[in-house]
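For reproducibility, we list the full input for the zinc ion complex.
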Amino acid sequence: MLIFFGTRSSRIQSQKVTSHTVCPHCESQNSFIATIFGTYFHIFWIPMFTLGKRTIVECSHCKKTYDEKELPESIRTALHKSLQDQPPKKAYWHCSGCFIILGASGLFLLLLIYALIFKAVKEDDFVSDDSPYNYEEVYTKDQTNYKTTNAETYAYQLKKDMLNTDYSPNIEKDKYSFALKLCLDAPSFGLDESTTGYFSKVSENKLLILVEIEELDVLTEPEKNKIYSKLNMCVDDILGGNTYQKYIGTFKNKTFTMLQTPEGVFKDDQAINELLLPFYEVKED
Ligand SMILES: [Zn+2]
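The corresponding predicted structure, in tokenized form, follows.
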């Protein structure tokens, strides 16, 4: 039968007994050599742990050996003193199997922790990747936020532009407004020239024309329609061959009564500011 575990002994160290001794056998003085043996438990001849030490004393003169236990009291005391002065080295290799097991356990534990963390991270990824509902929700939310933010900016810009209408536009500063004022001829519609303001702005291939008319709420529908069509005609004249997308609006007190965009013509309650916001949208490259 194969014995694959058990105990073994090995010599750890030999050293001279330095304290004064006399050999009981040959009466030689200071002739003792102490040899320390370590006993260890092994599995497949791999030392696992120490079981204890045993010290054998040999007379270098007569070669008689004595077990520590059978030594006369005086020699045993001398031996202990000698070992105290010169402690024998420790045989750590008698525990090498133990260290291997400890190391392997530690490594296994580390790998286990790593695997658990890795698994947790992967599961997180899996949830977010494979959940179209969550993804869609976030995506839609982002889109909405994006649009809201831009729309707010555009609305702010539009309000600013509405405040910047000019009652007597300068040909240098705003040539379209200048030309439009001449073409529209506000007094011919019974409008007060000094309260009729103009604003124009070009962005990419888009043209914005804003006209502020003080009398809008006292004019009849036909009167207003005449103004709108003249306005449209004037803009076309002024642009000549330019193929701008036109955004034209007439307003009083920040409220539009007519808006003309590439989408069509909108009047009164239908002429909401938002219709002009596409003018402010900038194409992303
Ligand atoms: Zn002897």
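Confidence is low (pLDDT under 50) at residues 128-142. DSSP finds six helices and nine strands in the chain. Both points were considered when choosing residues for closer inspection.
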